[in-house]
Amino acid sequence: MDELDPVIHAAARLKITATLATIASGDRISFPRLQELLDMTAGNLSTHLRRLEDAGYVDVEKTHQGRMPVTYLALTTTGRRAFEDYTEALRALLGTAS
Prior knowledge:
Layout: H1 6-9, H2 11-21, E1 29-30, H3 31-38, H4 42-54, E2 58-65, E3 68-75, H5 77-97
Antiparallel strand pairs: 1-3, 2-3
């Protein structure tokens, strides 16, 4: 399984990446909405997002709406490509198992 990206391969990061990949390129999702979709705690989601951000796979934009802080998330071009590569490698791996 060396060909599977270890950054994406962790179950939580795979869920995050797969969810973000469903969002059109150029669009983004708020942190609370992603947290709700994935049913993850804020701390757990933050930890995994940090790893994805450090790898250059996720763009984290912190801004304000009025006085309220808001965090928006999106896959970067690199992240989208890494997810595509990951799914191709997984399909190939599963194909050899049958």
